[in-house]
Request: fold
Amino acid sequence: MKNVEFIIIFLFMIAVNSHSSNFVVSNRVSEIKVYDNLELNIDTDLKIKNPYDYDEINITGEFISPDNSKKIVDAFYCESFGESKKKNFKIRFTPDKPGKWKYRIKVKKNKEVLLESKLFTFECKKNPDKNGFIKLSDTDFLFTEFSNKKPFFPVGLNIAWSASEDVYADYEKWISKLKENGGNFIRIWMANWFLGIEWDGKLKDYSGRQKQAYLLDKIIKLCEENGIYIMLCLLPHGEFSTTHNSNWDKNPYNKINGGILERPEEFFINERAKKIFKNRLRYIIARYSYSTSIFAWELFNEVDLTDKYDTFNALNWHREMLNEIKNYDIYKHLKTTSFSDPYKDDEIWNLKQIDFTQTHIYGLKDAAEAIYEISKYKIEKFSKPHIISEFGIDVNKETIEKGIDEGGIYMHNALWSGIFTLSFGSPMAWWWEIYVDRFNLFSLYKPLTDFIKDIKWIKNNYYEIKDKNVYISNAKEDSYRDLIIYPIEKWERAKEDRFTIKNNGIVVNKPYFPAFLFGKSKVDMKNDPVIKITNEKPGKLIIKLKRVSHDNILSVIVNDAESLRENVCAKDFPKKRFFDEWKIYQADIDKEYSVDLPVGDNEIILKNDGEDWILIDYIKFTDAVKAKYAPVFISGIQSNKDAYIWIKNEKFRWDNPEPESVKNAILNIYDLLSGRYVIKFYDTWNGEVIKEIQDIVDNDILLLEIPEVKKDIAISVRRYGE
Reply:
């Protein structure tokens, strides 16, 4: 219980320029608990033109800990919208150590110290109910933990904004549903249409956005009360883009609105713009950094979608702004940024100021495999913690509003696949309102959070399961099955053009396989895929097309000879549409083209010798994989005394919810210590244990006979007594 002295008045007489000023500090306390918030109200009669401008007025709290270390925090000016409607300065401070704390208040105006208080004190008591702030683990750099070393594994989704008339009620509802199902993590945007503080009015003047700032206060408090942690995104790309979700025409940085920039891309290099944005950062940090529910600052959402994106300029800007955050955030919250392109931007991800990497990924037929592959790629490439912070069936809202995947299969598969990639948290779904909430999909989190609650993420030094091959125990040695590749729909030049298909179903460079075959008008994006496969029996290559733009020629070359050449012109298909601005047709198509593949080593080139582009739905190789390799996808982690595995029927997708079951599958788990193990098989949809057995390991290998896999199954393997 805080002992509060509600009105403590300090009268300061100063000699500067022969004038005197007063200020009043209220809400002081004599006692507080570790990780609780101390909030001081400060009123002053100083004449101030812009109380939000730290160059004009800067009030700070200088706090001295029991071990004599010093922490300095900025005050912030605000307008209250609760019972009190007053406007004043506030200082928020969260002590992190028990014992006697001392502090003083200083006031600077135009960088001149005008007022300084004497030292005051409060006693800080231990607080076993609070875990503290979240940081990277000292034990395992891929995961996060609290100040008290308790592991934190985020499970949640984007709840970036609400457009309703009662935003707070929406967040109460969504957070309640997430908490009920074991979730603990959300991502919120400080977007100009939502919680952004610098939009209505002049630059460095946040007076027109105080209702938004106060609403974020309330949402953060709501999260604190419910054990929910926030990745707070500070800038949406549309504010500095004329092509992607553009808000540039209303941006106060824009000269047409009285700002200082002619073009959006100047934001990254204009010194005045950078100084103004630093002021915004200081305000955000002063107001919100006190909260242990702030997981991380995300500096920019999809910065690569800003106008004329330039890596060099963005790199220097990120370095400078991340250093600014570091200078003022005494609580050392984690820092990151994000890109729309899953493979951008190496230079920025390698910045030492970036604590973890993120991936945004959409338009995938099989979310499980794509999310697994990109997560492993990011972790291995950058040696930093990673999370899928946005994923969805489609990036277009109109597609989602049609009501596809009402059962949440796409989301379910993404969650279970991503959880066992050594990412530090679960993949985070987008479309929280028109998909997750609309179809009551919060319940998908409950079986997952129950399954992982006892995993010792940091302590057990997990790694990817050693052998991902799942076998069919009764398969004939000379039998084969088909292999399907669902490419990624990325409007860019493919980063790889060489792909190798192995007879166990592994496709080398599969995450890079392009969905678009570009023609002559897109020569800078053209990178024709070359596929190598060894056919042990005759087979076929089947190419299923999804969409086409203008006039194209599909060409398939097998071993230097053209095996297929077909005109694929949008105007020839019934579902065509004419675009007057480009004077061309585009069409949705549903057509397969096939070529024969002989026995032996084959090299296949897919080309578009026409004008525009062809979009591939999938490619299929018949009789390409030995039937002894089970048609499943597997994601899993292990140590030498436990393992956690998710197995999905390869054909189980949102567009194929009832595939043929996989039976008689077996899996070997290696590197286990000798001893007795408890093995549990789980239904991932209701969380129930399907089967529980015990087995003895005496040669470091555990052979598991997998129950029938109709959709998917989860497995826990724990050494007895651990």
User: Anything to note?
Assistant: DSSP finds ten helices and 42 strands in the chain. The chain has four domains: 4-125, 156-459, 464-472+632-719, 480-626. The longest helix spans residues 271-288. The domain at 156-459 is CATH 3.20.20.80 (TIM Barrel).
